[in-house]
Amino acid sequence: MGFESIPWKLILPLVIIQFILIIVAIIDLIRVRDTNGPKWLWAIIIILGNMIGPIIYFIVGRRNE
Amino acid sequence: MNNFSVLFQKEWRENVRNFKILWIPLVFLLFGISEPLTNYYLPQILNAVGNMPEGAVFQLPEFTPEQIVMSTISQYQFIGMLLVTLGFAGIIARERKNGTATLLYVRPISYISYVYSKLFIMCILVIGSAILGLLANLYYTYILFGTVDAGAFMGFLGTYIVWLLFVISIVLFSSAAFSTGIASAVSLLLVLFVQLIDGLLGAYWTISPWKLPMYAGEILNSSVDMTLFVWSVIVTVLAIIILLVGAVYFAKRNVSKTKI
Amino acid sequence: MKTLLHMQGLTKEYGKEKAVDDVTFSLNKHTSTALIGPNGAGKTTILSVLAGLLKQTKGSIVFDGEITEDFRKGIGFLPQYPKFYSWLTALEYTEMTAKLSGVDVKIARLEAEKTLEFLGLGDAKKKKTGTFSGGMKQRLGLAQAIVHKPSLLLLDEPVSALDPIGRREILNLLKELQASTTILYSTHILNDAEEMMDQLLFLRKGKLVEQGSMREVREKYANPVYKMYFSSSEEAARFVELSPWSARQENSIAFIHIEEAKPLMNEVLRVLSDSNLSLSKVERATASLEEIFLQVVNKG
């Protein structure tokens, strides 16, 4: 599949949402006092965890005050 | 009712400031969009990954638009429900545990308003996100796979909202009655585990709240048995009412368990 | 003086354990009452029942002339360790609690600002409560307790977690508040609060073992102590040796405790003249509240 044939108009929203999720998760990670497990590990999961990295962080990693 | 708006404002501020208002809709949107996309481009993706044997012809089944919407629902039914149960199991229990609720309970608040402020914020976050995600899903499905009958989609959406309300009521009840840990376990059990059981053994019965997502799909395909569907909705609505009344009862009863 | 609250035979049981056992007392309007007792004596339980957090097993409470179950509207409560929603600012929090306590929504914000100003949190009102120090939290705790001008203010160990300066400041604020409200507070730090006690209630193992005004309790428990100043510690020691009363010595001072209220001064003088000791000064000292506390809670 050539570069031009990729339907960017359709994929772009997905990329943007994914990007915002990662940013929100990282900001939250910085702000929150405690996480379940070390923060650096969560940073790796959020950034490299593909689509579900930030989601796993929000469900499992976040420790609510 | 005056209490309600004050308490709801508190819930709103909390969920804005802890970003839930942002990330919960985004997660539902993400699955709403990615599901049609990945299904449509699966052949290309497999090709690009490049581990197809030379000359192999990979025949993908042709998906109907309805099937795409339903496969999105199955994502919501797992990851979405996990998020709702674990993300909100502490909505009342945690306030009791950390003592922040104490200074609410010593005031002349109505526990109905208290529970309903929580119900309301959960509805906005969960049902709002699901609607947003499913509308995006509908749009992508329309572009890539074709149209879904608007009337059928509304029926499907309405049914799924009743199911979500049922899930929210379970979580709210558990959080009012138990500690956060137990509330998480109970909600997970009642939402995900019973759903699994219903899926495996459910052929033996036809009226059940846990069958609503399935009936929602059948409405989409216009193949639903109306009697069974209506009875399931009635049973679910009754269960929701009982759960909410129970949540108010336990929220009030467990006031003495708040940390002083 | 008018009675604001009368508690009759209040009992709170946890299974067979009695956390509060048949406690009866009254609070007069615009007075301060101290609940005094060691940890586990039932102070917090009594306050929690009054605050509506716990239900008594037995007993009744008359509040402002009415026998009632729920008078949360008329009270303000400060727990020992108040916990706030960390994501709200001090002003948002105080405004919210004011509204929930029935302050008119139109003036709630103004009332909240005034209260925070009064408690010295004016500059911090826009800060999130999660960033507050211990002293600031105590002030905010007080703010939410008084913002709706309750007729009864319940304070659970309001000063024990504070340093001496913070303690003094809070006590001064409470003294100011006493003009407009009735205060019931628990404490185990006695001397700091002495000036804030119109009534003392001594609790031990859930029972009310002594009550009365400061003066009444003092008279009942304070056996007079005489401090005799001698010119040297040897002389003081000598006096303690000769003394027929229970006596002890600290450097050049001898303390005699006379059980009966009547100090037999003649006897004292006789001992002095017989022994040729040179006394420079005599003082009658009252037992400190701390000593009374120990006597009351240890008796029976």
From TrEMBL, chain A:
Pfam families: PLDc_N (PF13396). It is a multi-pass membrane protein. One of its GO terms (cellular component) is plasma membrane. The chain crosses the membrane at residues 6-28, 40-60. Residues 20-62 form the Cardiolipin synthase N-terminal domain. It comes from the Bacteria. Its main location: membrane. The keyword Iron does not apply. InterPro entries: CLS_N (IPR027379). Coiled coil: none annotated. It is found in: Cell membrane. Keywords: Cell membrane, Membrane, Transmembrane, Transmembrane helix. Signal peptide: none annotated. The keyword Cytoplasm does not apply. This is Phospholipase D-like protein. The lineage of its organism: Bacteria, Bacillati, Bacillota, Bacilli, Bacillales.
Automatic annotation (TrEMBL), chain B:
One of its GO terms (cellular component) is plasma membrane. One of its GO terms (molecular function) is ABC-type transporter activity. Keywords: Membrane, Transmembrane, Transmembrane helix. It comes from the Bacteria. The chain crosses the membrane at residues 21-42, 73-93, 114-140, 152-173, 185-207, 227-251. The keyword Transmembrane helix applies. Pfam families: ABC2_membrane_2. This is ABC-2 type transport system permease protein. It comes from Psychrobacillus insolitus.
Automatic annotation (TrEMBL), chain C:
Residues 5-230 form the ABC transporter domain. SUPFAM superfamilies: P-loop containing nucleoside triphosphate hydrolases. Gene3D superfamilies: P-loop containing nucleotide triphosphate hydrolases. It holds the Pfam family ABC_tran. Keywords: ATP-binding, Nucleotide-binding, Transport. InterPro entries: AAA+_ATPase (IPR003593), ABC_transporter-like_ATP-bd (IPR003439), ABC_transporter-like_CS (IPR017871), DrrA1/2-like_C (IPR025302), P-loop_NTPase (IPR027417). One of its GO terms (molecular function) is ATP hydrolysis activity. Belongs to the ABC transporter superfamily. This is ABC-2 type transport system ATP-binding protein.
